[in-house]
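Dear colleagues,

For the upcoming journal club I promised to circulate an example of a predicted protein-ligand complex. I picked one with zinc ion because it came up in last month's discussion. The inputs are reproduced below in full, followed by the predicted structure.
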Amino acid sequence: MYEIRHREQKWPHPIITIFIYHFPCTTAAAVEHKIKDGSAEQRDRAIYTLKITQFIRGQRMALAGLRGFAASGLAEMRREIYDIQNSQTQTELPGRLVRQESGGETGDLDGDNVYNNTGSVYEFYKKVFNRNSLDNHGMPMVSSVHFARDFDNAFWNGRQMVYGDGDDVDFEKHKLAELLDVMGHEMTHGVTNHTSNLDYVGESGGLNESMSDCFGVMISQWTSNQTVDAAHWLIGEGLMTGGNALRSMRDPGTANPYDDQIKNYRDYRPDMDVHTSSGIANYAFYLACKSVGGRSWEKIGKVWYIANTARLRHNSGFQDAANHTFDVAGSLFGEGSLEENAIFNAWREAGIDAEKPDLVANVRPRIIMR
Amino acid sequence: MRISFEQSGGIAGLSKKINLDTNFLPSSEVQVVQSLINTSNFYDLPNNTGQPNPDAADYLRYKITLESDNGRKHTVETTDITTPAGLSPFIGYLRRKIQEQRR
Ligand SMILES: [Zn+2]
């Protein structure tokens, strides 16, 4: 069965990366040679072969997501919950182990909520995308609760999730640990680290943030089997004492009085916080989901998953995200399909015209269908 | 002594700021502040405590500036990920001051 591995990102050439899973190295090298040095006709044929391969690949991935769960179940899920006991010192993380896989309830509200939410996020990635934990190799999912005192934040430190209690001044107490989309958001940072590894700065940082919001909101919707029309499209609903939510994907910039998210690329500035520029891609995701209808994770979510895990690279920007989601939709659902059009129009509303991505470095693909 | 403290980033991407002048704090609190500054070796800390793990996300960023009455000034920028252990209690105190102000 096809598996996505983060090693993929280390291959020097995207063509080799794509072919290595389907053909012996010699064949991949031959195709690459034809694309780089062959005649125009050889080049076109090679690129056409590549397009077909991608189509098959997209289908395999989609099918793998459906087949995998029945075969393997959730047996590999490993959760670990620690109590950092109000320390704000990184070197003391993770803290005291209070609950691990199959262990009984701790009686600590935050610890038990985080344990349950971790399970829901794992289940979502496993059942919907056949992904086995953050690294797809079953790595333990570690969280620490009670970080610092009255701490208004939850973060991913590159290895684990860390939760504050909330101070009841800006954040309601215990809400960070209670909200499933917050856990989905943090754990998706781990998934992104192991796949596209989008740099946490500039446009790639905004995309990284948006991936976390998109999957966070999808996980909430999936858990309650909500349609795109029934969902509220908020991130962190009820978390802020002075506002509705942290962010709104339906209408970025309106979730609370401090919300300054943008929803159009023309408003982007490189010095923006990554949680501000993420609104561009959040809005595109929302619009595409709404226009296709049904359930977010079934179609547009699948496209976003493939883009984050197999297409985007550490320095990808919003244009790359538009191009690749558009192209993946074409591969999965067909060129000119409802889904492909929905994605094109959604990005256009967010200020970006998607183009066919340049899949071959240094060579402009001139695709002739024969 | 004047203290300026700024907190930004985090999962919410919110910025919060407070300015304190120890001349207007009760003397017992001034002693607390002084001992927090001493514990952190504040004036020996670099202006920036370093880049967080590039894989990390949603951490808070902090910027602390102290300016004594005789004009000595020092700024330290740090994050949830890179805060030295000795500086954590001082940041905890400054975060509480922001909470008091906003309550
Ligand atoms: Zn985030």
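Two points we might discuss: The mean pLDDT of chain B is 95. Chain B touches chain A at residues 8-14, 52-60, 80-83, 85, 88-89, 91-92, 95-96, 99, 102-103 (CB under 8 Å).

See you all on Thursday,
B. R.
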